[in-house]
TrEMBL record:
FAD binds at residues 126-135, 159-161, 271, 282, 339-341, 366-368. It is an enzyme of class 1 (oxidoreductase). Residues 10-121 form the Acyl-CoA dehydrogenase/oxidase N-terminal domain. GO terms for biological process: L-leucine catabolic process. This is Isovaleryl-CoA dehydrogenase, mitochondrial. GO terms for molecular function: 3-methylbutanoyl-CoA dehydrogenase activity; flavin adenine dinucleotide binding. Transmembrane segments: none annotated. Residues 125-220 form the Acyl-CoA oxidase/dehydrogenase middle domain. Catalyzes the conversion of isovaleryl-CoA/3-methylbutanoyl-CoA to 3-methylbut-2-enoyl-CoA as an intermediate step in the leucine (Leu) catabolic pathway. To a lesser extent, is also able to catalyze the oxidation of other saturated short-chain acyl-CoA thioesters as pentanoyl-CoA, hexenoyl-CoA and butenoyl-CoA. Keywords: FAD, Flavoprotein, Mitochondrion, Oxidoreductase, Transit peptide. The lineage of its organism: Eukaryota, Metazoa, Chordata, Tunicata, Ascidiacea.
């Protein structure tokens, strides 16, 4: 089924991105996963910038491509189909860092930070979570103390995607501890700032090659002009983009599910037992039907929500719902892909799809938190 609502525009985008990724990323995906490293990241980022994919939702007036979240989902989906890990890094750059600067930066901040992020000359990240505050973001401990024309940051962030690589980061810190949620402010942090460092990258179960680490702030001096959005309104800055983060993130598991089908279905027709391909047995045919319909349901849900968002109809219920459903479904589809045959050995990429898919039930809001959001909706 063709789920593209504007067939020509979206089909051209998908086919162009897909061909580029099949040439530039898919052949590297297994090695990236095995080594937990992507040494070609900088050159790959430049190519993404040349294609206009790093500022895809940024207005043309700010140097971006001027497209919508629907198009971002297409790119994220296709990239996840090639490499879930590198797609995760792409989302952290384009959907988190770039999007927040676009939405909340003043003219000077956008002029300074957006061009190198959009071109791929620099890598972006967002830092919210800490070792003791993930879902409970308000309990963060990173403190920013005003001293003249600077804020001095002390503390740390944890589980930060692109942390080891990022040149520009949107970082949340407490500027008024007593005010709790009303005392958090967003800052623009640059690699090389005195007192700011990235610790050793983490060795993860999945999403290997999408570098993740702890960020350390030790008397890090940040100019007052690097405050992003209103002072003490960091929760507003964060939450105002959270629906787009969740929706854009849902494209990750959708792309991973497609990758599972790309791998498992041909194998079902090649593998023979009892004189016929195992795909001819009814139980395996049923599994194929279930995998396909689950993927199609998630893809349709995602595109429907994306189209609504691009028309200005934001709905936190469905932005949370689509990633909740897609993430858990992707894990199950990947498990089914392993069951289809030979997925338990690393000569096939199916195990990688499972390990990558599981992240989406944990990162950017756990499945439990996403369900909890519904407590006041119905």
């Amino acid at each position: 089924t063709d789920f593209n609502f504007d067939k020509l525009h979206h089909t051209v985008l998908r086919s162009t991105v897909s061909k580029f990724l099949q040439d530039e990323l898919t052949p590297l995906a297994d090695e990236i996963d095995r080594t937990n490293d992507f040494p070609q990241m900088r050159s790959f980022w430049k190519k993404l910038g040349d294609m206009g994919l790093l500022g895809i939702t940024v207005p043309e007036s700010d140097g971006g491509t001027g497209l919508g979240i629907f198009e971002h989902c297409i790119v994220m989906e296709e990239m996840s189909r090639s490499s879930g890990a590198i797609a995760l890094s792409y989302g952290a750059h384009s959907n988190l860092c770039v999007n927040q600067i676009t939405r909340h930066g003043n003219d000077e901040q956008k002029a300074k930070y957006l061009p190198p992020l959009i071109s791929g000359d620099k890598v972006g990240a967002l830092a919210m979570s800490e070792s003791g505050s993930g879902s409970d973001v308000v309990s963060m401990k990173l403190k920013a103390e005003k001293r003249g024309d600077y804020y001095v940051l002390n503390g740390s962030k944890f589980w930060i995607t692109n942390g080891p690589d990022a040149d520009t980061l949107v970082v949340y810190a407490k500027t008024d501890i007593a005010a709790e949620a009303r005392g958090i402010t967003a800052f623009l942090i640059e690699k090389g700032m005195e007192g700011f460092s990235a610790a050793q990258k983490l060795d993860k179960f999945g999403m290997r090659g999408s570098n993740t680490c702890e960020l350390v702030f030790e008397d890090c001096k940040v100019p007052v002009e690097n405050v992003l959005g209103p002072l003490n309104k960091g929760v507003y800055v964060l939450m105002s983009g959270l629906d787009l983060e969740r929706l854009g993130g849902a494209a990750g598991p959708v792309g991973l599910m497609q990758a599972v089908l790309d791998t498992a279905f041909p194998y079902l027709h090649q593998r023979k037992q009892f004189g016929q391909s195992i795909g001819e047995f009814q139980l395996m045919q049923g599994k194929m039907a279930d995998m396909y319909t689950k993927l199609s349901a998630c893809r349709s849900y995602m595109y429907g929500v994306a189209r609504a968002c691009d028309k200005g109809h934001f709905n936190n219920r469905d932005c949370a719902g689509v990633i909740l459903y897609a993430a858990e479904t992707a894990t199950q589809v990947a498990l089914d892909g392993i069951q289809c045959g030979n997925g338990y050995i690393n000569d096939y990429p199916t195990g990688r799809f499972l390990r990558d898919a599981k992240l989406y039930e944990i990162g950017a809001g756990t499945s439990e938190i996403r369900r909890w959001l519904y407590r006041k909706i119905f």
